[in-house]
Amino acid sequence: MTTAFRAAAPSTVSTSTPNLGPLAQLAGTWVGSGFNLVALPISPPPPPDSQTNPSFFVKINATHETIAFTPISAPIPDRGFQQPDIEYLGLHYLQQVTDAVLNSALHIETGMWLNVPATTAPAQPATIVRLATVPHGDSLLMQGQANVTPFGPAPFLPVSTSPIGTFSGLGYTDHYNLPLPPGLPVGTPTGVIADPNLLLGQAVSGQNIVSTTVLTISTAAPGGILNIPFVTTNAQATQCTATFWIETVQNTDGSQFVQLQYSQTVLLNFGNIIWPHISVSTLIKQ
Question: Which of 57, 98, 200, 283 could disulfide-link 30, Cβ–Cβ 3.0 to 4.6 Å?
Answer without folding.
Answer: 283
